[in-house]
Amino acid sequence: ELARSSKDRVTFSMGMALFEVLANVAGSAGAAPLVGLGAATVAGVAFANGFQVLAVLSAALALVSVLPALTLREPHHPPPEAGFGFMAAVLTSLRNRQFLHYGGLMVACRLASMSAIIAVPYVGTQLMGLDEGQASLLLAVIIVVATLAFPVVGSLANRAGKARVFRLGALGFVLVLPLLGTIGLLPGVPVLVQGGLLFVLAGFPVATLFVLPRALLADIIDHDEALTGARREATYTGMSGVMEKVGEALATGLVGVLFQVFGNSAAAPMGLRLFGLVAALFVGGGLWAFAGYREPA
């Protein structure tokens, strides 16, 4: 509703992705110092520990952020269909082939990104010889590069189409993830150089995952309206969230099984060397599912 053209949808989604990154960075950087305060008195209020300070500050920030939304008024739409419950919403979305193509790739890409979030700290400590603090910075490298790549993703999407660039980002996951398992195996190549290069290359695929899904989903909602005459933003937004959480849940189980069976230590590193390859296979399946997606004219 906020953006009707494809270009505006990409631009708005870039802005949302930037705020998402800033929020994650602020939360990561600010939580530890606040928790470390211990018992403290702030503005005349006594707190027993830093967790209470963090909770109250988070609630205050949430309240401030939501206040502007209270002044907004939704555009007029016909009344919703009577009795349109959860199961009806699920079945409606599953009848939309565009959404199925999109959902297949979203599950796979979320699986890939969550697998990396879980495994990369172990890659840093066990395969690259870094301490825990240094290893945690590897994910920061990916996020920084991804954020810098937002304008590139937006420009490419406006020129070549959102679906094509999303496929390109997924292909980046397919190419980069298996190579993470080769860190330390290439003779003559320092592990820091090899690992650093791979984490930089991962920035572009992650950028496409930050920026493009919302814009694609808006097109899918319009496609559904053209077919049915109904506006079902909540249905598709909710079902897209379900798809994303399914991918993240699968990643948790997948990486856990690989670590349990094949190991995730310097002495038994095969789980670390296999997770990227297995995740890339899932993304390959997602690309196959997304092959049927058709960008609106």
Features:
globular, mainly alpha, 297 residues
Q: Note the overall shape.
A: globular
**What's the total number of strands?**
2
Q: How large is the share of residues in beta strands?
A: under 5%
**Biggest sheet layout:** 2 strands, antiparallel
Q: Between the first and last Cα atoms, what is the distance in angstroms?
A: 18 Å
The helix fraction, in percent, is over 70%
Q: Roughly what is the average pLDDT, rounded to an integer?
A: 91
Radius of gyration based on Cα positions: 21 Å
Overview of this protein structure:
The protein is mainly alpha-helical and about 300 residues long. Helix content is about 75%, strand content about 0%. A two-stranded antiparallel ribbon has the order 1-2. It is globular and about 60 Å long.
Topology:
Elements: H1 6-35, E1 40-42, E2 45-47, H2 50-66, H3 86-94, H4 97-127, H5 132-148, H6 150-160, H7 162-180, H8 191-201, H9 203-228, H10 233-262, H11 270-290
Antiparallel strand pairs: 1-2
What is the gist of this entry?
This protein is an all-alpha fold. It is built from eleven helices and two strands, in the order αββαααααααααα. α1 crosses α9 and α6 packs across α9.
